[in-house]
Amino acid sequence: MLKIFRCALLLTPIVLSASQTPSRIECAINDAQTFVLHGNTRPAVRTGAARDQGPVAASQILPRLSLHFALTAEQTQDLHQLLSALQTPKSASYHKFLSHAEYADRFGLNTADVDKVTRWLENNGFSNIQVANSRSSVTFSGTAAQAQAAFHTQIHNYALKGQLYYANTSDPELPQALENVADGVGGLHNFRAQPNLAGPQPRFTAANGNHYLTPTDVQTIYNVTPLSNSFGSVGLKLVVVGQSDVSLTDLRAFRTAAGLPAHDPTFITVGTDPGIVSGDELSSDVVLEWGGAIATNVDVIYITGNAQNANGASDALNYALENYQNTIITTSYGECEADISTAEFTTQNNLLAQGNAVGDTIVAASGNRGPADCDTGTVATQGLAVQFPASSAYVTAVGGTTFNEGTGSYWSSSNSANSGSAISYIPETTWDDGNQAASGGGASVLVAKPTWQTALTPNDNARDVPDVALAASANHDGYLVCSGGNCVNGFQNASGNLAVVGGTSISSVLFAQMIDYALSINGVTLGNINQRLYQLQPYNTGAFYDITTGSNSVACSAGSKNCPSSLQLGYAATAGYDQATGLGSVNAQNLYISWPFDIYLTAAPASLNLVPGSSSSSTLTLASVEFVTGYNTSGLASVSCSVSSTLPNVTCTVPATLPGLGGTGTLTLTAGSAASTPLLRLGPTVLLLGLAFAPALWMLRRRRPALRWSTAAFAALTIGAISCGSGTTTSLTFTNPSNGQTETGSVSVTASFNGHLTTVTIPVTVQ
Hints:
Helix content: 10-25%
Number of helices: 17
CATH class of the largest domain: Alpha Beta
CATH architecture of the largest domain: 3-Layer(aba) Sandwich
CATH topology of the largest domain: Rossmann fold
Radius of gyration: 35 Å
Distance between the termini: 64 Å
């Protein structure tokens, strides 16, 4: 009754567009009654791992607060179905990505409910209220005192691992009217994601014979050069996120030293400007310089968040997902899954799904601490762990490799004009530089195994990472970088020294450019690319270099979680997929060639019925989902068919070939004659048997001497009838099979065209 009374205070509802979802906030939003929004306290605060340093000042500004809205059960199911349909070639929704407005009307809160939320925020003194394009969240600013009053929690300072943070001490409380609508409250803490940058141990072609990597080297090693030479002017776009300002002087110096054309990034700041942040500046320099290093004309858009008074790179990523569509977005930042709250995971993962729905392809570094992403020292104690957002099913995770030249000759004795010296692909092993610097990989504890990983990855019911891997070692052979004004003579500083780094921060941004090439040149947008990557691997198209040696193992403390008797925790590289290097590293040219389109067969009619001794047919059509520039569509597809074992008397025929695009042909099924049982001949034989059998019975009943003659005649006629049972006279027949039951099964038709396979299965009934 109390709820009915509160709801009676509502004003006349706002008339909504018919395309929006129904209202979910039934009652006026007020603070009379509240509920606890569980899962919104950082684990380090909840467990006491972070040491409480006392309350923050009441006047402290929290400039990037946010309230995230939950999806209903129906919306969640609809979103999952949509994401599947967007990647299913036969679906009417295939690659028909939504606009942000369409996403908002289908999955966001309706505008009337959003208005109620914004009024409540205004009433609590918050300012700078902004509704996300998806209507899935609202951001706003306020003081610590306002946040504590509105969300019924305290905000304290905390010390953790030598850093000082602020965070809410307990889960927030919200008005009862927002129950089942609110999903999480962001911005109450400033715990932040960390970059995946590895420290330098340089090698470069110089007087000492060592090697570093320049853009020209990477283009050569991973076969990017043909794409750069042929399509360098294609309008590519790449969004990169970070949490520090950078110096344009460094970025321009890098491009000059590498012989790249001038091409400054576009800068966007989310919230307050962070300025130059020590540590994060180097990471941002690296991803911005190498983010335009192999796709040399890519338009890099750098979005930076503030990690001092907000959530830094996470805020920047959220902004990118809310404001860009049909775009490659890459992040080199992440956190151990166990370090984030359940609400943070849910809200962030929903945003990543939203990105896929509007056509964004998201690439993330898998981590630099091997299989122990929750650890920071040189010996693991926290057990197996992977990094988020790389572990999301909506993200492509990129791990690390190390070049392994062996006795081969892969480097020139001198550098080119662009400081390159690599002459071909160099064999690779798993990146593991020791001291817990290794390719991040393993099984997620938050994300279930997506369908596209089922066939190739371990049977662990978990999302496995990484998906692919590229060179990441700083020890052998590291990447040159310009940062802090060091590049005054090419890549050298005034003392002749070089700045060299590694890590999956670089491998992820390099892979993002390869994907940018594959999609932009082919004229397609794909959203989540993972299904395509895992489809390509079994067909040996040359897109991947399988890494089969090494491991991402790190030392672990005896008796600690997951630590084996060997005191080495991790995964070995094997043939095919593994949790150290994923599907392997990438040949960019072959990936582009392999990517273009799916082919598929259809059959009309889609099912067939036969009777014994007859034939039936269906028209086959071979079609391509996408016709793209540069793909070889000439030639013929090979076609074959097979019948299931439950149809032993049915045969199939198809054309040996069909035209690669738009080819049609006929599938013909033939059912053999019904089984005939060699029983008694019909007609005269049966009549004679009857004439002989009747007198014999009469003689037997009367015990006459003629019995022996009648019996003999009956026997002779019977033998004759049986011996003639296989003659051409009509026989007694049964339906197929001979027991009179109906046969059911299927016929499968497969077409192979330019390395792509497609199969259609047609149900068949014989009766």
